[in-house]
Amino acid sequence: MNPPPFRIKPFGPRAVLLEWPSRLELEILFDILGFAAYLKKGRLAETQWEYVPIYHSLTLISRDAPVDLDTLAKALRSWYESYPGPESIRTREWELPVCYDPEFGLDLEQAAETLQMSPETLILKHGAATYRVFGIGFLPGFLYLGGVPEELRLPRKASPRARVPGGSVGLADRQTGIYPQDSPGGWNILGKCPIPLFDPQRDPPSFIALGDSIRFRAVSRAEFDLHRIEAEVGVYDHSKKYGNARG
Amino acid sequence: MLEVKGAGFFTSVQDLGRFGYRHLGVPVAGAADLLSARRVNGLLENPESAAVLEMTMQGPVLAFSEPTYISYSGAPMDIRLGGQALEPDQVYAVPAGGEVNCGRIKKGFRSYLGVKGGLLAPLVLGSRSYYSPVTEQRKLKIGDEIGYTPCPEYTPKILKWSHADHIKEHLLQAFPGPEYDLLSQKQRELLFSQEFSLAKEHDRMACQLNELLPAHTISMITSATLPGTVQLAPSGKVIILMCDGQTTGGYPRILQLEENALSVLAQKKAGDRIRFRSSGY
Q1: What are the structural domain ranges in chain B?
Q2: Per CATH, domain B2-146 is 3.40.190
Q3: Topology (CATH level 3) of domain B171-278
Q4: Mutation target vs A (from B18, B19, B21, B23; most A CBs, 10 A cutoff)
Q5: Is any Cβ of chain B less than 8 angstroms from the Cβ of A217?
Q6: Which residues from A are below 8 Å from B177, CB to CB?
Q7: Which residues of chain B have a CB within 8 Å of the CB of A15?
Q8: pLDDT tens across A132-153, in order?
Q9: B27, B138 Cβ separation under 8 angstroms
Q10: What is the dotted CATH code of the domain comprising A93-232?
Q11: ipTM for the complex?
């Protein structure tokens, strides 16, 4: 009998941390997603447990009672034996509009220069890649995206901005992503997405889920304004008009 | 209706917090000092999930349009109902038109004011706790109106409790965090032997400490963090995540505070001293 691929660590009195091998791999992410879905089905109910999966770990937080580590660890190992695998996991692909106009792309020119390419090429390459959501966290609706091409890797800005406008699309190190709200930040800002990624008036407040894929589509300033208004009045439709959600 | 006539330094509505949305990056929020918030609700025989006011350093001025009963706990503060000075951990009747004038906190950092039945601030994603941008507001401002159910007649079962003693505590009980094992022997020793003081940078999100531990080069993949997670930045800076703290982070999680230790910490202000004490699993 194979041991489970994760280590179980205590994380304070109410939480346990399950750690898969520390690699950024889609296979690991899907195993975490699959196992979490399996646990939620009548084993560790979401009314009692919160699940925070990200990259190579899954944190389980008990809402009311403190965790009995030994009992839980034993149960988790035995559940992993009966878990059929991540085959039933379905993810979606989202296409998000981004306006790369200089008004929004505060660092576009500088970033292109550092990467020794034209701003147009940078926009093309940024939009040609498919990024995977390896985590949601830090701030409400912030996506940790993996899959930045090697040729687009550039350092964070030497001094962070005190205020990056919400919706800004940034690039730094191996990461690209969207600032969900105004916040301080050190990423290079390439453009802006008009669609809010987090809306507390909706439940769930985020339409993107862990494991989903993201593509960026360059749009004009006029299209940006149109989508922003559509999003504000709640008629922006990912699935129909723009052919965004699949699978 | 409770009308805000003066906002205070930083006053917000808080309950036990927001559960079930951490996987979308939504912090738990809730009262920073849950022990005191629970005391207030206990005295008023409210459900423990009832929302209360969390008042920081300098309290607000509040006008009550309907009769109710109130109580406050946590850090002792100068607080008056009309001309009467109020004691902590006691229940008082407030008449229609009553004005509660909260002054400065005398010892500690946060006081909690409860209203019979709880405050009816908007329920967003299962909680009334203020946390912007999940809730529109981050803190009270002059002119805000917050609902409550009037209560003209009520005979409290408990008239008075002895005062909260965690305000005076300076020991923080803590379990080893997931990356504790990666610390050097020296770092571990200092962590528990050294006295730390709170830096100016401390709020509901995080509390930084002035004294550094030896710097490190431990690198880890971003993973979940909790209220009470003690992080060690590469510079050796110790950061304790609080109730509004980020849900994930990339610094080693060296300790995890016991829940009551978060209440102890929530009563500390810049310069106050603390020590960590080890709890075993």
Answers
A1: 2-146, 171-278
A2: no
A3: Cyclophilin (2.40.100)
A4: B23
A5: no
A6: 11-12
A7: 224, 226, 256
A8: 999 999 889 999 999 999 999 9
A9: no
A10: 2.40.100.10
A11: 0.95
